[in-house]
Automatic annotation (TrEMBL):
InterPro entries: CheY-like_superfamily, NreC/VraR/RcsB-like_REC, Sig_transdc_resp-reg_receiver, WalR-like
Keyword Metal-binding listed: no
UniProt-recorded name of the protein: Response regulator receiver domain-containing protein
Tagged with keyword Phosphoprotein: yes
Positions where 4-aspartylphosphate occurs in the chain: 62
Length: 143
């Protein structure tokens, strides 16, 4: 992570039942300038607690989770944390899954196999926009 106090990082929380996938995603996303991986979970309850405790800006989640589903997590996040950006990154990428995720609050939906680079590019864009907003707000306070 490459940030400074004047350039706050976008805080990303990862939710996937496979630790190997979480480690890969954390390494890849965490290497993006302006991104900080603030937590990980493998099941919806721990994810909700962790997302709230870390004040995550972005949640990247799979649909298949231990003890629940990503759809349930999306629904809970939409009800309780409307400002968090939700990104589904999954192998369950059929049309039905995509539509169900969007209907339950997902802002982004990517196939792990074929769209991982696109997901990385999206995180990078979000981090850049987050930094730009931070600079805008810093400038506004000094006017």
């Amino acid at each position: 992570m490459n940030t400074s106090p004047s350039h706050p990082a976008v805080r990303v929380f990862l939710v996937d039942d496979a630790i190997s996938i979480r480690k890969r995603v954390a390494a890849r996303f965490g290497a993006i300038e302006g991104v900080e991986i603030v937590g990980e979970a493998e099941e919806p309850g721990a994810a909700l607690d962790g997302i709230g405790a870390t004040a995550a800006d972005v949640v990247v989640m799979d649909l298949h989770l231990s003890g629940g589903s990503g759809i349930d997590l999306l629904r809970n996040l939409a009800q309780s944390m409307s400002t968090v950006i939700t990104i589904v990154l999954t192998n369950h990428s059929g049309t039905w899954f995509r539509q169900a995720c969007v209907a339950n609050g997902a802002q982004y939906f990517f196939d792990k196999t074929s769209e991982f680079d696109l997901a990385c590019n999206t995180i990078e864009r979000i981090a850049h926009e987050h930094c730009a907003r931070g600079l805008y707000h810093l400038g506004a306070h000094h006017v």
